[in-house]
Design brief:
The complex is a heterodimer of chains A (333) and B (333).
Chain A (H helix, E strand, L loop, with lengths): L1 H23 L7 E5 L6 H16 L3 E4 L11 H9 L4 E4 L8 H9 L3 E5 L10 E4 L3 H16 L3 E7 L5 H14 L7 E8 L4 H14 L3 E6 L2 H12 L8 E4 L3 H9 L5 E4 L2 H16 L10 E3 L5 E3 L5 E3 L4 E4 L9
Parallel strand pairs in A: 1-2, 1-3, 3-4, 4-5, 5-13, 6-7, 6-8, 8-9
Antiparallel strand pairs in A: 10-14, 11-12
Helix pairs in contact in A: 2-10, 3-4, 5-6, 7-8
Chain B lengths: L12 H19 L6 H10 L1 H15 L7 H17 L4 H26 L3 H20 L3 E2 L4 H8 L9 H19 L1 H11 L1 H6 L4 H26 L3 E2 L6 H11 L11 H20 L4 H41 L1
Antiparallel strand pairs in B: 1-2
Classes of the chains: A alpha/beta (333), B mainly alpha (333).
């Protein structure tokens, strides 16, 4: 009888042990992980940070979000210094300036703090891993493909970007310009790249300016969540509503009303919550010593499954999703 | 009018600032055990290097009942110019000299327009605030220049020997001594108080008001350019938007230091104490994870109190003197 119970219990115990290692994947308990967004209260960054906090909670760590209220080159630096003083285990940062934060992140790394960038990268020596939403090339090309579909393959359009120094925006614009060189887009013309500084008011005024300066303008592509909603708000009150195309990168919750009232037909984005979630798992795996950031290493990222570190420490979340009236209600972020 | 001596006990803003500084340091120590550590003290001082460099000449200007709101724009323009000149292949020492010269020219422009047109510096420098910022975007556009030589950028982030003193902070100490001597123990300094109290009286007592004012704005332009150079080296990043909004921090520090916005009153000791208090509070509250919105509110409250407290104290004293005089008059009758 006793023997039987033992015999029965053994495989159960073994299975439990195995599943525990698979689930936790050797992540240390009580890791202190801090998210440092470009700017607090930016709706996009809030979603990304919340995804990160959710992951940290899953792993039994202590997460927090700190950051500046302006997006200047240096405003993140005093926060990095503070996080070093507080002896955090890892910092997950979306950098405002690819270089300004690097000396300070190096100091953090020298003291054993793991650094992961997400959304907007730094120079490689500043971090161990960069969690990229999708590769920049597919985002840039995808935006032009969507635009071409929406304006029927011809006409003038303008880009409404964030700040002139935003690394991610500039890379996407470069790929958009590259995609435009293909013969099928010969009748599409980019007339101007305007900057709304990721400020709602400024983006709104820039939209107004673009429409006045280019009477034949057919579309605005705003690869920034602040820009696209400001542009949509302006167009929704203008007589061009319904004929003028506003597209770009935005969140479903922010754009839902504009899709429903016919101002916006379609736009794209990846799930920023999943981006933060992935970044938190990457940071925890670094801090637990499971990975170092070398190409080819793999780690478990909770519900996102197994991920592989690519070239120069880049981990890619996946291709963007196109949202339109048919699917927007399936998303809540 | 011989008021009783005890009523003449001057309300000393500097003494009060000393008390507030000690209290802030105590608060910092209480909120975080790491606060008084050498590394944290180093960050704390480094954090307000540029603000301090610009607050010194600003003190002199406000004592003379003028204001220079273009300081942060001159700083940004200097940073951008530094990047451009370096990219043109000039040697760093020459770049530094040329940038400082450009700062002097910017200050000279401010001074000449104010004096020749006899217009308020508030209006003129709001104009040049926009103009100089425009120049910096013209110079660098959307670029950020980061490839400054390592031996220069190391200066920006190193400390003196093994101490906690950031190397750029030596400039703050030297400038603070220089400006204190200039304001408190030279004829030039005394003429500023005279101009600030009563410009016409100063003119008739032999002060060359126009020349003095031009000198002040030139000094301010020079120091703003110096701040721009230090900032660029500290963050190895020359950008057109560097230091955006710093003018308000500079003016806030000067006013909280007890310098009257109406001119004629205030000391550099007060301003230096105020810079330290703001630095300590900001650092301590950040270490305690107080959000940056609350930090902005704290700065606002400090500024308000610097205007309100002396005003209320003044009124209370006036009321007491009136009461005592009235009582005396009754007794004499």
């Amino acid at each position: 009888m006793h023997r039987n119970i033992k015999l029965l219990a053994m495989p159960v115990l073994l299975a439990a042990l195995l599943s525990a290692t698979a689930m936790g994947a050797g992540i240390k308990k009580d890791l202190k992980i801090a998210f440092l967004p470009k700017q607090i209260n930016n709706p996009y960054e809030v979603i990304a940070d919340n995804g990160g906090l959710e992951a940290i909670k899953e792993m039994g760590g202590v997460g927090k979000v700190v950051g500046p209220s302006d997006a200047g080159a240096s405003s993140q630096v005093s926060y990095i210094n503070t996080l070093i003083t507080q002896k955090q285990n890892a910092i997950v940062i979306a950098a405002n300036d690819a270089n300004a934060v690097v000396p300070y992140l190096k100091k953090a790394q020298a003291q054993g703090i793991k650094v992961v960038t997400f959304d907007s990268d730094t120079a490689p020596e500043g971090r161990a891993l960069f969690i990229n939403q999708a590769d920049s090339e597919s985002i840039g090309r995808g935006q032009i493909q969507l635009l071409s579909k929406l304006i029927g393959g011809e006409g003038e359009f303008a880009i409404l970007s964030a700040t002139p120094n935003a690394t991610n925006q500039n890379t996407w614009i470069k790929w958009m310009e590259d995609e435009l060189k293909k013969p099928e887009y010969a009748k599409i013309k980019l007339v101007k790249v305007a900057y709304g500084n990721d400020d709602d008011q400024k983006s709104f005024v820039e939209t107004q300016g673009l429409l006045q300066a280019y009477p034949n303008l057919k579309a605005i592509v705003a690869p920034t969540t602040v820009g696209i909603s400001a542009a949509a708000r302006y167009i929704s009150t203008s007589p061009k509503k319904g004929t003028f195309v506003v597209t770009g990168l935005g969140t479903p919750n922010q754009m839902r009303a504009f899709v429903k009232n016919g101002t916006v037909k379609a736009f794209q984005l990846w799930d920023p919550g999943a981006l933060g979630y992935l970044a938190a798992y990457a940071a925890a795996n670094l801090a637990s010593g499971n990975i170092t950031g070398k190409e080819g290493e793999t780690f478990e990222a909770g519900k996102l499954g197994k991920r592989t570190v690519g070239k120069s420490g880049e981990v890619i979340l996946g291709p963007p999703t196109t949202f339109d009236a048919s699917n927007i209600d399936n998303f809540n972020f | 009018m011989d008021t009783p001596r005890k009523l003449n006990l001057r309300f000393s803003w500097e003494a009060m600032l000393c008390v507030v500084l000690v209290m802030s340091l105590g608060l910092g120590r209480g909120l975080s055990g790491e606060f008084l550590g050498a590394a944290n003290m180093s960050n704390l001082l480094a954090d307000f290097t540029e603000i301090a460099l610009m607050a010194l000449p600003m003190t002199l200007i406000i004592v003379a009942a003028e204001i220079d709101l273009s300081v942060a724009s001159v700083m940004g323009m200097s940073s951008a110019l530094m990047g451009v000149l370096w990219h043109m292949g000039l040697p760093m020492p020459l770049v530094v000299v040329l940038v400082l010269a450009a700062g002097v020219l910017a200050g000279l422009f401010n001074g000449l327009v104010i004096v020749r047109l006899g217009l308020p510096s508030l209006a003129i420098t709001i104009g040049t605030l926009a103009m100089f910022r425009g120049f910096s975007y013209l110079l660098l556009g959307d670029q950020a220049i980061a490839d400054f030589p390592a031996n220069w950028t190391t200066f920006g982030i190193s400390t003196v020997g093994d101490s906690f003193l950031p190397q750029p902070f030596i400039l703050v100490i030297l400038a603070a001594i220089g400006f204190t001597v200039l304001l408190q123990s030279t004829a030039f300094g005394r003429s500023l108080y005279a101009i600030g109290s009563n410009q016409t009286a100063a003119h008739f007592s032999g002060v060359d008001v126009a020349r003095t004012k031009i000198k002040l704005f030139v000094l301010s332009g020079f120091m703003s350019a110096l701040a721009g150079i230090i900032y660029t080296l500290r963050f190895s990043s020359a950008r057109g938007d560097n230091g955006e909004g710093f003018e308000l921090s500079v003016v806030a520090a000067v006013l909280f230091g007890g310098v009257s916005i109406f001119g004629g009153k205030g000391s550099l000791v007060g301003v230096l104490l105020s810079l330290l208090i703001i630095g300590v509070l900001k650092n301590a509250l950040t270490l305690y994870d107080v959000s940056s919105e609350v930090l902005t509110i704290v700065t606002g409250l400090l500024l308000l109190s610097s205007v309100l407290v002396p005003n209320i104290a003044e009124r209370l004293r006036a009321a007491r003197i009136k009461r005592v005089m009235a009582a005396k008059a009754v007794a004499a009758r």
